Amino acid sequence: MNQRETHPAPAQAAAGTIRLTAAQALVRYLAAQRTAAGETLFGGVFAIFGHGNVAGIGEALYRHREDLPTYRAHNEQAMAHSAIAYAKAHFRRRMMAVTTSIGPGATNLVTAAALAHVNRLPVLFLPGDIFVSRAPDPVLQQVEDLHDGGVSANDALRPVSRYFDRIVHPAQLLSALPRALRVLTDAALCGPVTLALPQDVQAMAWDYPAAFFEPRIVRFHAPAPVASEIEEAAAALRESREPLIVSGGGVLYGEAADALRAFAGRHGIPVAETQAGKSALAWDDPLNVGGIGVTGSSAANELANAADCVLAVGTRLQDFTTGSNTLFTQARLVGINANAFDALKQNSIAVEADARLALDALSAALGDWRAAPQWTTRAHHLAGDWRTTVASVTGTPPHDGALPREADVIGAVQRSHPQSADNDIVVCAAGTLPADLQKLWRTGTPGGYHVEYGYSCMGYEVAGGLGVKLARPGREVIVMVGDGSYLMMNSELATSVMLGAKLIVVLLDNRGFGCINRLQQACGGAPFNNLIDDCRQGRQGAPAIDFAMHARALGAMAEHVANIGELEAAMQRARAADRSYLISIDTDPAWPTEEGGWWWEVAVPEVSEREGVRNARTEYEHALAARAASGSQQGTVK
Would you say 140 and 51 are in contact if contact means Cβ atoms under 8 Å apart? Predict the structure, then answer.
């Protein structure tokens, strides 16, 4: 700081009060929050300034720029993804805020807010808003509602916020901020919070109680288990012989990885992982049977289809996990979740509690009870067989002249470092890659697998990788992304260079939306409007995109490689680089990992002129009939 630059204290209004603008008060309050470890609760604020936040929030952030860093980004949705990824990488124990201008800046947050809402992840949105006074109505970028004068663009954030408030007077912060903080730090309520900030209110001053800004330790709230619910869950497990644990994201967010490992080992119960729960148990743990469901392992799905009791811990039982409700409906379900809404799904015996506390209490209630020995032995064998399969699938090079698959790329990335399973954090979000990563990525530490698959949001990858790197600067963050997602949103690669937050981006170019192209054909459709070659084109045809050149234009180092051998060598250069490094490689759009998997319900048109669609519809109807007819004995639909 320049020695001539001073920050005079705001005028004192009266004993015990301090006069601040609403924006100054908000920022000062955020900067005062601490975790039990003594860190600031908010790791910083992502900001793109414009009218509606530059004068108010912008001036307040400048004053606190040392203790509450402000990060500039290039796209509002992308910076929100970065903030969300930061919180996910911290298992929701630290988080970020995001501020935008009114109008397009605010509405650009809606997709990211939906992503945070679906994934139960904390982020604080601070969009600028129109004047409360309405004196200059309508202002630039204002969305006018013909039936409600109080509506602004920010109201689009209401359905995708866990808590929404419009601050129309500075004093409202005294109640709005503690409420917002409770939602952000409550295991059951957790999700995005929006505080809409009219630009004239941001600039208004008020006499705040000085005690409101005293540094304080924030306690993260998660419910303790109720004895009667634990006993009911224990009774269900005691009656079973062949139980299975489904580990969801709540295990990681509840810091329950050690409790899960101890519970599974003591009671001999195999563990299958959801996308959000993967990495809670090390990949080579003898009871880790791999991912479950549509993108899961053959080991996990075989056990799920035979289990007589499923203990679902910290999962919302999305259709990819349950195989569109066909995978383990023969089993009795016990749901452990901090949120009763999720604990009750699938008619579960609900334990509304923190994952760690519930697993410890349930283990104590079970005492020396164990699953049937032959069941545990079967799980060990299947888990070992699946690890062999993974090694084979990722270690077999493509045929001469054939383009590599996603599996080949995953294998090469992990082979490029002997401690990859313990050191690397992989980041991904959409397309075929999440399926293959859930099956094939090996991680030995909680958080080593960071895949956003609740909202499956294309464009999350690079921005999310930036947030992960800011949260875990000592780890190698490897963003695996398809060309389709990269083209949707890549701007934060430049931000990563600017911030010195090094990413390794492995870009798999299959020339379009390969995953949806395969789904389209599986439903009987003709290849259409997904791969670039199947799209309408002008006279010049489709561009030959040089992704390495593009990345270099954004300030990163980059190269294109022709095969898996070159990829492994490039990974060594990328790991040694001092800045973000992109490696692009051409891959086969029609060659996913066939091992593992399960049926997924996608509605096929009931009538069509195409024979392929009619045939797919017949198969679809057979699958629906099998699900309906088998009742509680599902599992034949694959």
Answer: yes
- Is 603 within a domain? no
Domain assignment of residue 611, yes or no: no
Q: Are residues 337 and 439 in the same domain?
A: no
User: How far apart (Å, rounded) are the C-alpha atoms in residues 21 and 178?
Assistant: 18
Domain membership of residue 186 as a residue range: 17-217
**Residues 151, 206: Cα–Cα separation, whole Å:** 25
Cα separations in angstroms, 84 against 111, 471, 516: 12, 11, 26
pLDDT value of residue 631: 62
Residues 245 and 210 in one domain: no
CA 553 to mean position of chain CA atoms: 28
H or E segment and range at residue 19: strand 17-21
| Confidence (pLDDT) at 14 | 64
What pLDDT, on a 0 to 100 scale, did the predictor assign at position 592? 84
Whether 356 and 421 map to the same domain: the answer is no
The span from the CA of 59 to the CA of 297, in Å, is 52
For 130-139, how does the pLDDT look when each residue is reduced to its tens digit (9 = 90+)? 999 999 999 9
Closest CA to 590 of 390, 405, 431, 389: 405
Q: What is the pLDDT of residue 1?
A: 38
- pLDDT value of residue 634: 40
CA distances (Å), origin 391, targets 314, 399, 426: 29, 17, 18
Stretches in the chain below the pLDDT threshold 50? 1-7, 632-638
> What whole-number distance in Å separates Cα of residue 65 and Cα of residue 30?
12
Q: What's this model's pTM, rounded to 2 decimal places?
A: 0.95
Q: Is residue 208 located within the same domain as residue 249? A: no
By the 8 A CB rule, do 585 and 579 touch? Answer: no
The CATH number of the domain where 253 resides is what?
Answer: 3.40.50.1220
CA dist 434 and 427 (Å) reads 9
CA–CA distance, 532 with 484 (Å, rounded to integer): 10
Determine contact, residues 292/246, Cβ cutoff 8 Å.
yes
Give me the CATH number covering residue 191.
3.40.50.970
Q: Is 170 helix (H, G, I), strand (E, B) or coil?
A: helix
Residue 399: per-residue pLDDT? 72
Residue-level pLDDT at 377 = 98
Number of structural domains found in the chain: 3
pLDDT of residue 10: 52
Any domain includes 232: yes
